[in-house]
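User: Hello! I'm new to structural biology and keep hearing that structure can be predicted from sequence alone. Could you demonstrate with Acyl-CoA dehydrogenase/oxidase C-terminal domain-containing protein? Please show me the input and the output so I can see what each looks like.

Assistant: Of course. The first part below is the input, the amino acid sequence of Acyl-CoA dehydrogenase/oxidase C-terminal domain-containing protein. The second part is the output, the predicted structure written as tokens.
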Amino acid sequence: RLMGNYPLFEALIQYSKETKQNGKPLSEEPVIRSKLAQLKIELEIGRLHMYRVTTVMDEGRAPNWESAMAKAYGTAFEQRLASTAIEILGLYGQLSPESKWVPLQGMAYHSYLSSKGYSLQAGTSEILKNILALRKLGLPTQ
């Protein structure tokens, strides 16, 4: 799922380069640049989590806590990406894909609405954190 929203990330970068505010591209605004850079860092961290899962599988082991960590992180990242996209796009980001004024073909709108459910699919974030606490940290069950 992590890379499922990569097109939104790339489109958001392009949008910030092409869209002007006060005569300057959004990409020149320090706050926007910082948010996009942070998303890129988080995207790469998520990718490394996925590589760890595949490495464990290649070694013939079950990636129980590794996959829980990757899923929990990826879900949180997708929610942050969607929220940041809506922030950068402003009120236009809330328009449905059918609107003639919607930016990015409605990707931000769709991602934002879908991202809330990601934390429930394939295990809630709380369950995944419990798996990490038990299997990786060796903490007792509740």
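User: So the tokens describe the shape?

Assistant: Right, they're a compact way of writing down the 3D structure. Reading them back into a model, for example: The chain has one domain: 2-134.
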